Amino acid sequence: MPSLLPGPVGIWTAALDALEVPAAQDQVAALDEQGWDALWFGEAYGREAFTAASLYLAASRRMAVATGIASIYGRDAVSANAGARTLEAAFPGRFVLGLGVSHAPLVERMRGHSYGKPVAAMRDYLDALDAAPYLAAGGQTPPPRVVAALGPKMLELSRDRAQGAHPYLTTPEHTASAREVLGEGPLLAVEQAVVLSDDRDEVRRRAHWHLEIYTGLPNYRNSWFRQGFVEQDAVRGGSDRLKDALVVGGEEAILERVQAHLDAGADHVCLQVLGPDAFTAPSQDWARLAPVVAGLRR
Question: 53 or 2, which is more confident?
Protein backbone atom coordinates (compact mmCIF):
# COMPACT_ATOMS: atom_id res chain seq x y z
CA MET A 1 0.00 0.00 0.00
CA PRO A 2 1.13 3.61 -0.30
CA SER A 3 3.53 4.70 2.43
CA LEU A 4 1.43 7.66 3.60
CA LEU A 5 -0.03 5.60 6.45
CA PRO A 6 1.47 2.78 8.52
CA GLY A 7 -1.43 0.37 7.96
CA PRO A 8 -4.95 -0.22 6.68
CA VAL A 9 -7.18 0.59 9.66
CA GLY A 10 -7.54 3.87 11.53
CA ILE A 11 -10.01 5.79 13.66
CA TRP A 12 -12.10 8.74 12.45
CA THR A 13 -13.63 10.82 15.21
CA ALA A 14 -15.05 14.18 16.16
CA ALA A 15 -15.53 13.04 19.76
CA LEU A 16 -12.14 14.23 21.04
CA ASP A 17 -13.62 17.72 21.10
CA ALA A 18 -15.86 16.47 23.92
CA LEU A 19 -12.77 16.02 26.12
CA GLU A 20 -10.64 18.68 27.78
CA VAL A 21 -7.24 18.96 26.09
CA PRO A 22 -5.26 16.86 28.63
CA ALA A 23 -7.91 14.14 28.54
CA ALA A 24 -8.00 14.25 24.75
CA GLN A 25 -4.23 13.81 24.61
CA ASP A 26 -4.44 10.90 27.05
CA GLN A 27 -7.04 9.31 24.80
CA VAL A 28 -4.85 9.79 21.73
CA ALA A 29 -1.96 8.15 23.58
CA ALA A 30 -4.25 5.21 24.38
CA LEU A 31 -5.30 4.87 20.74
CA ASP A 32 -1.64 4.84 19.76
CA GLU A 33 -0.90 2.10 22.30
CA GLN A 34 -3.88 0.09 21.07
CA GLY A 35 -2.23 -0.09 17.68
CA TRP A 36 -4.48 2.02 15.48
CA ASP A 37 -2.67 3.02 12.32
CA ALA A 38 -4.02 6.55 12.03
CA LEU A 39 -6.20 9.11 13.74
CA TRP A 40 -8.49 11.16 11.50
CA PHE A 41 -10.58 14.06 12.75
CA GLY A 42 -12.73 16.75 11.21
CA GLU A 43 -13.06 20.50 11.52
CA ALA A 44 -16.39 22.21 12.08
CA TYR A 45 -17.43 23.73 15.40
CA GLY A 46 -14.63 22.40 17.60
CA ARG A 47 -10.85 22.69 17.72
CA GLU A 48 -8.94 24.34 14.89
CA ALA A 49 -7.53 21.54 12.74
CA PHE A 50 -3.82 22.38 12.72
CA THR A 51 -3.71 23.14 16.43
CA ALA A 52 -5.50 19.89 17.18
CA ALA A 53 -3.12 17.96 14.93
CA SER A 54 -0.18 19.37 16.85
CA LEU A 55 -1.74 18.31 20.16
CA TYR A 56 -2.46 14.80 18.94
CA LEU A 57 0.90 14.30 17.28
CA ALA A 58 2.63 15.36 20.47
CA ALA A 59 0.56 12.86 22.46
CA SER A 60 1.35 9.88 20.21
CA ARG A 61 4.50 8.17 19.02
CA ARG A 62 3.71 5.90 16.10
CA MET A 63 0.37 6.42 14.37
CA ALA A 64 -0.29 8.96 11.68
CA VAL A 65 -2.50 11.96 12.39
CA ALA A 66 -4.63 13.23 9.52
CA THR A 67 -7.07 16.10 9.15
CA GLY A 68 -10.24 14.63 7.75
CA ILE A 69 -10.79 17.33 6.77
CA ALA A 70 -9.33 20.80 7.22
CA SER A 71 -11.66 23.22 5.48
CA ILE A 72 -10.11 25.29 2.70
CA TYR A 73 -12.27 28.15 4.00
CA GLY A 74 -10.72 27.88 7.48
CA ARG A 75 -7.44 29.59 6.54
CA ASP A 76 -5.75 30.98 3.48
CA ALA A 77 -3.31 28.83 1.51
CA VAL A 78 -0.22 30.59 2.88
CA SER A 79 -1.28 29.79 6.45
CA ALA A 80 -2.17 26.21 5.52
CA ASN A 81 1.17 25.70 3.80
CA ALA A 82 3.07 27.11 6.77
CA GLY A 83 1.11 25.05 9.28
CA ALA A 84 1.44 21.83 7.32
CA ARG A 85 5.18 22.23 6.76
CA THR A 86 5.72 23.08 10.42
CA LEU A 87 3.92 19.90 11.49
CA GLU A 88 5.91 17.84 8.99
CA ALA A 89 9.16 19.31 10.32
CA ALA A 90 8.17 18.65 13.94
CA PHE A 91 6.74 15.15 13.37
CA PRO A 92 8.39 13.79 10.20
CA GLY A 93 6.31 11.35 8.22
CA ARG A 94 3.36 11.31 10.61
CA PHE A 95 1.09 14.14 9.45
CA VAL A 96 -1.30 13.88 6.51
CA LEU A 97 -3.02 17.04 5.32
CA GLY A 98 -6.59 16.25 4.39
CA LEU A 99 -8.34 19.15 2.67
CA GLY A 100 -11.98 19.62 1.78
CA VAL A 101 -14.46 22.22 0.57
CA SER A 102 -16.75 21.62 3.58
CA HIS A 103 -20.42 22.52 3.01
CA ALA A 104 -22.24 25.69 2.06
CA PRO A 105 -24.14 26.09 5.38
CA LEU A 106 -20.95 25.77 7.41
CA VAL A 107 -18.98 28.06 5.13
CA GLU A 108 -21.56 30.81 4.61
CA ARG A 109 -23.54 30.87 7.84
CA MET A 110 -20.76 29.98 10.26
CA ARG A 111 -17.62 31.42 8.61
CA GLY A 112 -19.18 34.23 6.58
CA HIS A 113 -17.52 33.27 3.29
CA SER A 114 -19.05 32.79 -0.15
CA TYR A 115 -19.17 29.10 -1.04
CA GLY A 116 -17.69 28.62 -4.49
CA LYS A 117 -18.12 25.78 -6.96
CA PRO A 118 -16.42 22.89 -5.14
CA VAL A 119 -14.01 21.57 -7.79
CA ALA A 120 -12.97 25.03 -8.98
CA ALA A 121 -12.53 26.25 -5.40
CA MET A 122 -10.37 23.27 -4.51
CA ARG A 123 -8.28 23.62 -7.66
CA ASP A 124 -7.65 27.31 -6.98
CA TYR A 125 -6.72 26.53 -3.37
CA LEU A 126 -4.24 23.84 -4.42
CA ASP A 127 -2.71 26.28 -6.91
CA ALA A 128 -2.27 28.82 -4.13
CA LEU A 129 -0.91 26.16 -1.78
CA ASP A 130 1.72 25.14 -4.31
CA ALA A 131 2.73 28.76 -4.86
CA ALA A 132 2.80 29.74 -1.17
CA PRO A 133 6.19 30.82 0.25
CA TYR A 134 7.73 29.23 3.33
CA LEU A 135 10.93 30.78 4.66
CA ALA A 136 11.35 29.08 8.04
CA ALA A 137 14.15 26.63 8.78
CA GLY A 138 13.06 23.03 8.24
CA GLY A 139 9.90 21.92 6.52
CA GLN A 140 11.36 22.10 3.05
CA THR A 141 9.25 19.07 2.10
CA PRO A 142 5.50 19.47 2.52
CA PRO A 143 3.50 16.61 4.05
CA PRO A 144 1.36 14.42 1.81
CA ARG A 145 -2.12 15.76 1.12
CA VAL A 146 -5.40 14.08 0.32
CA VAL A 147 -8.64 15.62 -0.87
CA ALA A 148 -12.13 14.93 0.42
CA ALA A 149 -13.61 13.57 -2.80
CA LEU A 150 -16.98 12.02 -3.62
CA GLY A 151 -17.82 12.76 -7.25
CA PRO A 152 -15.69 11.83 -10.27
CA LYS A 153 -14.40 15.36 -10.92
CA MET A 154 -13.13 15.82 -7.36
CA LEU A 155 -11.65 12.32 -7.45
CA GLU A 156 -9.82 13.23 -10.66
CA LEU A 157 -8.49 16.35 -8.97
CA SER A 158 -7.30 14.32 -5.97
CA ARG A 159 -5.56 11.97 -8.39
CA ASP A 160 -3.86 14.74 -10.34
CA ARG A 161 -3.10 17.31 -7.64
CA ALA A 162 -2.78 15.34 -4.39
CA GLN A 163 -1.52 12.02 -3.08
CA GLY A 164 -4.98 10.55 -2.74
CA ALA A 165 -8.61 10.87 -1.74
CA HIS A 166 -10.62 10.67 1.47
CA PRO A 167 -14.29 9.82 0.78
CA TYR A 168 -16.77 10.06 3.66
CA LEU A 169 -20.19 8.37 4.04
CA THR A 170 -19.78 5.98 1.14
CA THR A 171 -20.20 2.27 0.40
CA PRO A 172 -17.78 -0.39 -0.87
CA GLU A 173 -19.38 0.08 -4.29
CA HIS A 174 -18.32 3.72 -4.22
CA THR A 175 -14.86 2.61 -3.14
CA ALA A 176 -14.60 0.45 -6.25
CA SER A 177 -15.66 3.28 -8.54
CA ALA A 178 -13.30 5.69 -6.77
CA ARG A 179 -10.38 3.32 -7.32
CA GLU A 180 -11.24 3.17 -11.02
CA VAL A 181 -10.97 6.96 -11.22
CA LEU A 182 -7.81 7.18 -9.11
CA GLY A 183 -6.02 4.32 -10.79
CA GLU A 184 -3.18 2.52 -9.08
CA GLY A 185 -0.94 4.49 -6.75
CA PRO A 186 -2.92 7.28 -5.06
CA LEU A 187 -4.04 6.62 -1.51
CA LEU A 188 -7.74 5.82 -1.09
CA ALA A 189 -8.69 6.29 2.57
CA VAL A 190 -12.42 5.77 3.16
CA GLU A 191 -14.57 6.45 6.22
CA GLN A 192 -16.86 3.73 7.58
CA ALA A 193 -19.30 4.33 10.44
CA VAL A 194 -19.69 1.38 12.81
CA VAL A 195 -21.55 0.44 16.00
CA LEU A 196 -20.28 -2.41 18.17
CA SER A 197 -23.80 -3.52 19.09
CA ASP A 198 -25.38 -6.41 17.16
CA ASP A 199 -28.85 -5.09 17.93
CA ARG A 200 -30.25 -3.82 14.63
CA ASP A 201 -32.60 -1.32 16.27
CA GLU A 202 -29.75 0.15 18.31
CA VAL A 203 -27.52 0.37 15.24
CA ARG A 204 -30.25 2.19 13.34
CA ARG A 205 -30.90 4.53 16.29
CA ARG A 206 -27.26 5.58 16.39
CA ALA A 207 -27.16 5.75 12.60
CA HIS A 208 -30.16 8.12 12.69
CA TRP A 209 -28.51 10.77 14.87
CA HIS A 210 -25.28 10.36 12.93
CA LEU A 211 -27.00 10.92 9.58
CA GLU A 212 -29.42 13.59 10.76
CA ILE A 213 -27.13 16.50 9.91
CA TYR A 214 -25.68 14.94 6.77
CA THR A 215 -29.01 14.31 5.06
CA GLY A 216 -29.40 18.08 4.83
CA LEU A 217 -26.09 18.61 3.02
CA PRO A 218 -26.16 18.55 -0.81
CA ASN A 219 -22.62 17.18 -1.19
CA TYR A 220 -23.58 13.94 0.54
CA ARG A 221 -27.07 13.70 -0.91
CA ASN A 222 -25.70 13.99 -4.45
CA SER A 223 -23.11 11.34 -3.66
CA TRP A 224 -25.79 8.95 -2.42
CA PHE A 225 -27.90 9.53 -5.51
CA ARG A 226 -24.87 8.62 -7.65
CA GLN A 227 -24.62 5.42 -5.59
CA GLY A 228 -28.18 4.41 -6.44
CA PHE A 229 -30.14 5.83 -3.52
CA VAL A 230 -33.24 7.94 -4.11
CA GLU A 231 -34.82 11.03 -2.58
CA GLN A 232 -36.86 8.92 -0.15
CA ASP A 233 -33.64 7.47 1.25
CA ALA A 234 -32.25 10.94 2.03
CA VAL A 235 -35.05 11.93 4.42
CA ARG A 236 -33.84 13.46 7.67
CA GLY A 237 -31.82 10.80 9.47
CA GLY A 238 -31.89 8.52 6.44
CA SER A 239 -34.13 5.67 5.43
CA ASP A 240 -33.51 2.21 6.88
CA ARG A 241 -31.93 1.27 3.55
CA LEU A 242 -29.48 4.16 3.76
CA LYS A 243 -28.70 3.46 7.42
CA ASP A 244 -28.00 -0.21 6.71
CA ALA A 245 -25.73 0.72 3.80
CA LEU A 246 -23.68 3.36 5.60
CA VAL A 247 -23.52 2.11 9.21
CA VAL A 248 -22.48 -1.42 10.18
CA GLY A 249 -23.17 -3.07 13.54
CA GLY A 250 -21.44 -5.95 15.32
CA GLU A 251 -17.85 -7.15 15.24
CA GLU A 252 -18.28 -9.75 12.49
CA ALA A 253 -20.12 -7.34 10.20
CA ILE A 254 -17.49 -4.65 10.85
CA LEU A 255 -14.71 -7.01 9.81
CA GLU A 256 -16.64 -8.00 6.68
CA ARG A 257 -17.27 -4.37 5.74
CA VAL A 258 -13.65 -3.33 6.25
CA GLN A 259 -12.54 -6.25 4.11
CA ALA A 260 -15.12 -5.30 1.47
CA HIS A 261 -13.64 -1.80 1.22
CA LEU A 262 -10.12 -3.20 1.02
CA ASP A 263 -11.16 -5.72 -1.64
CA ALA A 264 -12.81 -2.88 -3.58
CA GLY A 265 -9.55 -0.96 -3.74
CA ALA A 266 -9.25 1.03 -0.50
CA ASP A 267 -5.79 1.28 1.03
CA HIS A 268 -7.07 2.46 4.39
CA VAL A 269 -10.41 2.38 6.22
CA CYS A 270 -11.11 4.99 8.91
CA LEU A 271 -13.61 3.52 11.36
CA GLN A 272 -15.93 6.09 12.91
CA VAL A 273 -17.26 4.35 16.01
CA LEU A 274 -20.67 5.74 16.94
CA GLY A 275 -21.19 5.89 20.69
CA PRO A 276 -24.49 6.33 22.52
CA ASP A 277 -24.64 10.00 21.52
CA ALA A 278 -22.72 12.58 19.53
CA PHE A 279 -20.98 14.09 22.55
CA THR A 280 -19.32 11.12 24.26
CA ALA A 281 -15.95 9.75 23.22
CA PRO A 282 -16.46 5.98 22.79
CA SER A 283 -13.22 5.12 24.58
CA GLN A 284 -14.24 1.64 25.67
CA ASP A 285 -15.49 0.79 22.20
CA TRP A 286 -12.21 1.91 20.63
CA ALA A 287 -10.27 -0.31 23.03
CA ARG A 288 -12.62 -3.24 22.42
CA LEU A 289 -12.49 -2.91 18.64
CA ALA A 290 -8.70 -2.55 18.33
CA PRO A 291 -7.88 -6.29 18.75
CA VAL A 292 -10.83 -7.24 16.53
CA VAL A 293 -9.28 -5.49 13.51
CA ALA A 294 -5.66 -6.15 14.48
CA GLY A 295 -5.41 -9.03 12.02
CA LEU A 296 -6.02 -6.63 9.18
CA ARG A 297 -2.89 -4.62 10.02
CA ARG A 298 -0.42 -6.78 8.10
Answer: 53
Q: How far apart are CA 27 and CA 58, in angstroms?
A: 12
pLDDT tens-digit map of 224-275: 999 999 999 999 999 999 999 999 999 999 999 999 999 999 999 999 999 9
The string of pLDDT tens digits covering residues 14-35 is 999 999 999 999 999 999 999 9
241: which residues sit within 8 A by CB, 6+ positions away? 229, 233
- The enclosing domain of 240 has a CATH number of 3.20.20.30
Identity at 37, one-letter amino acid code? D
Closest CA to 266 of 164, 197, 169: 164
Phi, psi (degrees; rounded to nearest 5) at 140: -65, -30
pTM: 0.96
Q: How many other C-beta atoms can be found within 10 angstroms of the C-beta atom of residue 44? A: 15
Print the domain residue range for 124.
Answer: 9-296
Residues 6+ apart with CB under 8 A from 268: 1, 5, 7, 8, 9, 10, 37, 38, 187, 188, 189, 190
Q: Is the pLDDT of residue 298 over 80?
A: no
Residue 125 identity (one-letter amino acid): Y
- Distance of alpha carbon 208 from its chain centroid, rounded? 19
| Residue 1 is assigned to a structural domain of this protein | no
Classify residue 85 by burial, with Cβ atoms within 10 Å: 0-12, 13-18, 19+. Answer: buried
Phi–psi pair at 121, nearest 5 degrees: -65, -40
Name 66's bridge partners: 40, 96
- Is 133 among the domain residues? yes
Q: What burial letters (b/e) apply to 114-134, b meaning 16+ CB within 10 Å?
A: ebbebbebbbebbeebeebee
How far is residue 211's CA from residue 228's CA, in Å, rounded to a whole number?
Answer: 17
